[in-house]
Write the structure tokens for this entry.
Amino acid sequence: MDKLNLQTHNIVDENIKKIAELFPNCLTERLNEKGQPEAAIDFDMLRQELSKDIVEGPTERYQFTWPDKRNAIRLANAPTTDTLRPCREESVDFDNTQNLYIEGDNLEVLKLLRENYLGKVKMIYIDPPYNTGNDFVYNDDFAQTTGDYIHNSGQEDEEGNRLVANTESNGRFHTDWLNMIYPRLKVAKDLLSEDGVIFISIDEHESHNLRKICDEVFGIGNFIAQIVWEKRYTRSNNSKRFTTLTEPLLCYVKNSTNVTDIKEKRNEKADSIYTNPDNDPRGVWTSVSYVNPATKDQRPNLSYSLYNPITNKVVIHPTNAWKYEKATYEQHVRENKLYWGKNGENSYPRLKKFLFEMEGGMVPVDLWSYEDSGSTDMASKELENLLGRKIFDFPKPKELIIRILSLIINAKQDTDFFVLDFFSGSATTAHAVMQLNAEDGGKRKFIMVQLPEATDEKSEAYKAGYKNICEIGKERIRRAGKKIKDNLDRKANPSTGPSNPSLFDEEKSCPKLSELSSKLDIGFRVLKLDSSNMQDVYYSPEQFNENLLFEDNIKPGRSSEDLLFQVMLECNLPLSAKIETEKIAGKEVFSVNDGYLIACFDEKVNENVIKEVAKRKPYYFVMRDSSMASDNVADNFEQIFQAYSKDTIRRVL
């Protein structure tokens, strides 16, 4: 019998829990006065989280660290003035699509997305660059160069000769990779919804370190599984030691309290074990043992006699208990859920599990075979067939991503959510999203982010005209989207030609397929990371003389649509928001999300424009600071809005 506590809650422990929820990487361990380990807060790390500058103060404690880690944290928290510029000519269905393809360094892009998509992304999948010892493309601004690190860490002798020959065994080999991935995961966490899930593909070089990083960033209690994916099924005789047939796939959630269960959709293979040998009117079923692995001595409350209604015999297990309490057993008898064999020949009963009871899906396993999840060979062949030649190494199969996207979170078969991949590569994730939407009518929306890394001039990709990886990804989406839609159209209208039998397993009515095809979003809006549209004087006017202050604060060559997208970021509007343009008194006016934001960046805006905008009562109205047609318009600006729409938030660039 437990004793009454007879004291109030420990507020310190409660506060530690709260801080751990907000900043899981600040939770550490220490020994208390009794020499026992207890949870504690790493105040140096907490100070770092609350500061834009590096915080010093190392102390001995349990922690996972490496050179420049504090700087990596600073990078995640540092603000950015960059913006995203639209590129209509490279987009598909720019005005209507909800999908995004963003070119640029993903750390800066993620920071920009954090303003608009905070807590709105349901699922993230990334396949970051594996640590192969090659130079990194993601050159973040860390304090030490590789040369400085080698010298300062004692990897050079007095004459400057390098003491460590193998680059894969020196500390910087891991440091560079950790400094790259850490800030990106920290920002990505903010984008996840409270029931959001992230999956990360990785290889053996950094899987152990990635697990530690994710424990810090997402919290060790939010770890779900380390899935083993069978990426290939043939032995490679080129390997000197072991052939690697599998690859880890880490899974974490944003908040485990909001993700009570994860299920997979049922498939034919899983359903094939269900039969109906006794013609039960409730349909097909399978059965599980009624015998408990525990002995009678271990579970005396589960030890009682059963009755076989076919043989009229009383059944007692000689050594083991049953799995259920007696009251539950009696309920099973009333519901006719016990199976004793066709003629009652079973020594012990089995419990019926009906297929209709399994509608919530099935519990996923952490071993994913290539038959169910695709292989790298299958992925390479599909991409080669789609683009006409082999131009991309080691793409992930879309079947792997489809399996991830198909997971059922909290028994909600939600198909309307954002999917983010900020190491987009060949855009497998976008392909998988469109494919799955075509199969189940879902409304999943993808956000692809990829650094425009140049292709080698000797590569097949370069020879085929792809100057960077982004060009490969965008072309794949174009071709994959068209192919998927064409398959849907042929299925809906068989007279137009043969359909692709591998796309659908079940026949569906033509009208439904026609409707699905018409609503399927295979477009994407291309945005490119760039420096701010504003001149430096806009951010630091105190550093410029008075003459410069009167110059235009917008950089040359920036369009009105460039300005609009930077304003959309500032106003926390989705970057896929509906944009309409019209002329009011001869001036171009943008209306975003049905008038939620109205903006005009033309010169010499007069009172007629201001009055017409105010009458529409937008939530935001934005214009250039220098756009007023005259001092009189500027003087009357506030009075017009006070008269027609005083609650509108007015801003100028």
